[in-house]
Design a protein that fits this description.
Elements (H helix, E strand, L loop, with lengths): L2 H12 L6 H4 L4 H6 L1 E6 L9 H17 L3 E6 L2 H7 E3 L5 H12 L4 E6 L6 E5 L8 H12 L8 H25 L5 E7 L4 H9 L5 E6 L3 H8 L13 H7 L3 H13 L2 E4 L2 H10 L6 E2 L6 H4 L5 H19 L11 E7 L9 H18 L4 E7 L4 E4 L1 H33 L6 H4 L2 H13 L11 E3 L6 H8 L10 E6 L14 H7 L2 E3 L9 H8 L4 E4 L3 H9 L8 E4 L6 H16 L3 H13 L6 H19 L3 H13 L34 H4 L9 H7 L17 H16 L27 E2 L15 E2 L51 H5 L8 H7 L4
Parallel strand pairs: 1-2, 1-6, 2-5, 6-7, 7-8, 8-9, 10-11, 10-15, 11-14, 15-16, 16-17
Antiparallel strand pairs: 3-4, 4-5, 12-13, 18-19
Helix pairs in contact: 1-26, 6-8, 8-9, 9-12, 15-17, 15-21, 16-20, 16-24, 17-19, 25-32
Family: Belongs to the glycosyltransferase 3 family.
GO molecular function: alpha-1,4-glucan glucosyltransferase (UDP-glucose donor) activity
Pathway: Glycan biosynthesis; glycogen biosynthesis
């Protein structure tokens, strides 16, 4: 697929149902005129605990573009983070300043300032300790209103209760302050159960505030998956009250479920979590809000290949020291794979990853491969200190490096002196016996009688550590004969480490493949970060990211996005599929890996908040129209005033589209099927339309939103624009099956040559991005002994008895698809699945330095 097609796909994501998201990003002008405010409430505002911190932080820039100064983040006061992340100061807005002063008068310590991140948002932080004396009174109030009791011993729930009441007080005072000035529209967006108390109290007290609740992972679901539970096959069968009670989280579960029921709009981050919410919270999400990233932060343009080579060299330096005495493999034929995340052994798929590494080790040795795979496991856990053997290895490598550098310098000086005298130096004159003695000392000093360590640190209670026990069970001990080497790094990566001095982003760029076979992963930022950094990755169809890519990217494996089926296959089959993916990846040539990284990096635009932010916008519009049906009329009125403002320049465009310019990737139809601009519509004859047709066009299963009302048209012209968009969508051109920008066929070797069979097929999906890539036939390979027959069985939905209908925000489809009954064929061309590969000169320029 060419770059232009991916851009078309990104535009299709952010321009749906008549909404032009880019037109909504006006730096808060519309929000200021309408007096529209957004209060984002999260326990992780300027307080890093987990993944929600990344969601809020990365989403701030695009939200600020929509709301401007009318966007405020509410969170708890954590002194350690505030010192480094918040610029404390009094708010410049009177309404915030007056509200905070009133809170302080009531005895609540409130800190205001600006979060030191891109967008520089205003934050209001509540000191939980200053209000803890009200805990018993607020527990009684909460029980009287919601009939939910909080036990005394649960400190986290107590903190959540205090924080929730502080937010509840703030919202009430804030609404009163804003309404004194003019009519207002206030939206409060709550994240996770820790903020649920504030939402419940705000709704039960009837405040004039649109409420949104987003669950990034259900509380009970996370607890159930942490045990040995067949979670997804038993979703309809769980006794929810009993399961929550057995785990002593019944009160937390009640808060989360009540919040989902009390909110005006309930959202979750992925389709798989939406199914989970339907069964565990008894509430279907109104909108799916996939998590994005600030892609511009990771963008390296054409430099990302060079960054891979640069950071890979740092990994080489670490590996040389770690495997001293056993360093008998070629680094040019070494692949670095990794997995990372919270230390949740089964939820994050560490158990399956280790088992698949053992199988991969057997497959590589059986096939006689000379490729070495070094697997990193980055899972922070309790440690005492660095492993002495790990530090000794780096010290020996440094000693070797310094000795060789000194000898090299001396040889250069002698060579210069002898040549300057007009003589050709002899070998004995160049390399002296003293130099050989120094080299022998280094060689003898680097010998070891033990195997290289599998862990870089001394783990506390390593006898019961799940990862170490799994490595021992699979006998992955870094022996000389092993083609798979493992390194468990039980600490967050940082550039100041004396062992592996790399930040996480640098480490990811230096690796060849990220592996995340999660069993429970509502979204999955780790594979998303790999994608925007141009690193191929493996995830599962039980992760939100995997579901999103399966839905929106046709033949995702051709772009380095491999999806392991953990939902419709047994654990053994899934593990074999993962091992096969990694084995096939190891067969790729250097040039093929370069091409694959280029393809992977192209998908980064689909994960940008400028694209995915439209789903949060949609949720906010639905919430406002549900409590303020007149809000849509206010939008239309504002749009008409804007269009009639003489100071606004009118931009006209030719009604005939400009001829398409052919880029270096082929001729792609750039018709985006957008409605014509206002200047074109005004010149057309528009027939009056019936009001009922508008309602039908904009009325799914929930109240009519203010979707396209930012267009500067009156109702009649706006209807014409929607009709034009719908007509254009039906005639949207279908992409041809061409990978014009790639190499026709890449030689892997005589033993791995295959005949590529191209089957052109273009599938039209309603409202679904289709990249229309070719599918390849079976490949002949020298390692056919490891292959199994392709599996073409059809998936079924999670339950044949209970259908889950996803809201039309992402897709109105059930989770279905195709899998393979055995495993993928093990040819390297099967990994790329490219039927139109053509040699290009620009790949040769980077081939020398990439691997």
């Amino acid at each position: 697929m060419s770059i232009s097609k991916i851009k078309h796909a990104a535009k299709s994501l952010k321009n749906f149902q008549g909404i032009r998201f880019e037109e909504c990003l006006d730096d808060g002008e519309a929000a200021e005129q309408l007096n529209k405010w957004l209060l984002e409430v999260s326990w992780e505002v300027a307080n890093k605990v987990g993944g929600i911190y990344t969601v809020i932080r990365s989403k701030v820039p695009v939200t600020k573009k929509e709301y401007g100064n009318n966007y405020i983040c509410l969170g708890p006061y954590n002194d350690s983070f505030v010192k480094t992340e918040v610029e404390i100061g009094e708010s410049k807005l009177d309404v915030i300043r007056d509200t905070v002063n009133e809170m302080k008068r009531l005895g609540i310590h409130v800190v205001t300032g600006n979060w030191l991140i891109e967008g520089f948002p205003q934050v209001v932080l509540f000191d939980i300790g200053s209000a803890i004396h009200r805990l018993d009174d607020w527990k009684g109030d909460f029980f009287r209103h919601a009939r939910i009791g909080i036990p005394y011993h649960d400190r986290e729930a107590n903190d959540a209760l205090v924080f929730g009441f502080c937010v509840f007080w703030f919202i009430g005072i804030f609404i009163d302050q804003v309404k004194r000035r003019q009519k207002c529209y206030v939206i409060a967006h709550f994240h996770e159960w820790l903020t649920g108390v504030g939402l419940i109290m705000t709704r039960l007290c009837g405040y004039d505030c649109a409420l949104i609740f987003t669950t990034h992972a259900t509380l009970l679901g996370r607890y159930l998956c942490a045990g040995s539970t067949d979670f997804y096959n038993n979703l309809p069968l769980f006794d929810l009250d009993k399961e929550a009670g057995n785990r002593r989280i019944y009160h937390r579960y009640c808060i989360e479920r009540a919040a989902a029921s009390c909110t005006h709009v309930f959202t979750t981050v992925s389709k798989i979590t939406g199914i989970e919410s339907e069964y565990l919270l008894k509430k279907k999400p109104d909108v799916l809000t996939p998590n994005g990233l600030n892609v511009q932060k990771f963008a390296a343009l054409h430099e990302f290949q060079n960054l891979h080579a640069k950071n890979k060299e740092k990994l080489h330096a670490f590996v040389r020291g770690h495997f001293y005495g056993h360093y008998d493999f070629d680094l040019d034929k070494t692949l670095y794979v990794f997995t990372a995340g919270r230390y949740e052994f089964t939820n994050k798929g560490a158990d399956m990853f280790i088992e698949s590494l053992a199988r991969l080790n057997h497959m590589l040795k059986s096939s006689g491969s000379d490729v070495t795979v070094v697997a990193f496991l980055i899972f922070p856990t309790a440690t005492n200190n660095f492993n002495v053997e790990s530090l000794r290895g780096q010290s020996i490598a440094k000693m070797f490096r310094d000795t060789v550098s000194n000898i090299q310098s001396d040889i250069g000086k002698r060579l210069y002196e002898i040549s300057l005298k007009g003589h050709l130096p002899t070998p004995a004159e160049i390399l002296l016996s003293s130099d050989l003695i120094e080299l022998k000392k280094c060689i003898y000093g680097s010998q070891r009688s033990t195997l290289p360590p599998i862990c870089t640190h001394n783990v506390c209670d390593d006898i019961h550590d799940p990862i170490l026990n799994a490595l021992r069970r699979c006998e992955l001990f870094n022996a000389r004969s092993d083609r798979v080497k493992v390194i468990f790094h039980p600490e967050f990566l940082r550039s100041t480490s004396p062992l592996l001095p790399l930040d996480y982003d640098e480490f990811v760029r230096g690796c060849h493949l990220g592996v995340f076979p999660s069993y429970y992963e509502p979204w999955g930022y780790t594979p998303a970060e790999c994608t925007v950094l141009g690193v191929p990755n493996i995830s599962t169809n039980l992760s939100g990211f995997g579901c999103f890519m399966e839905e929106h990217v046709h033949d995702a494996h051709t772009y380095g996005i491999y999806i392991v089926d953990r939902r419709y296959k047994s654990g053994d089959e899934s593990c074999q599929q993962l091992a096969q993916y990694m084995f096939d990846f190891s067969l790729l040539t250097r040039r093929q890996r370069i091409i694959l990284r280029n393809r992977t990096e192209r998908l980064s635009e689909l994960l940008d908040w400028n694209v995915l932010g439209i789903y949060y916008y949609r949720a906010r519009q639905i919430a406002l129209t549900r409590i303020h049906p007149e809000f849509e009329e206010e939008i239309i009125k504002l749009a008409n005033e804007t269009s009639s403002n003489p100071s606004t320049p009118v931009i006209s465009r030719s009604s005939t589209p400009a001829p398409h310019e052919h880029d270096d990737e082929g001729t792609d139809d750039e018709d985006e099927s957008h409605p014509p601009p206002p200047s074109q519509i005004s010149s057309q004859k528009v027939s009056p339309k019936q009001p009922s047709s508008i309602d039908q066009a904009f009325e799914p299963s929930f109240a009519r939103p203010a979707s396209a009302t930012h267009l500067p048209l009156d109702k009649q012209f706006r209807a014409a624009a929607v009709a034009a968009a719908n007509a254009a969508a039906t005639d949207e051109p279908t992409f041809t099956d061409a990978l014009d920008d790639e190499i026709r066929q890449i030689t892997i070797g005589k033993d791995n040559q295959s005949k590529l069979t191209s089957t052109s097929q273009t599938i039209k999906h309603d409202d679904k991005v289709d990249f229309s890539l070719d599918d390849l036939g079976d490949l002949d390979d020298s390692h056919d002994s490891q292959e199994q027959v392709p599996y073409e069985d059809n998936k079924t939905s999670i339950s044949t008895k209970h259908d889950f209908t996803i809201p039309d925000v992402l897709q109105q489809t059930t989770i279905t698809g195709n899998t393979t009954s055995g495993e993928s064929t093990s040819g390297a061309e099967n990994i790329l699945s490219s039927s139109n590969l053509k040699d290009q000169p620009n790949t040769k320029s980077t081939e020398k330095e990439q691997s």
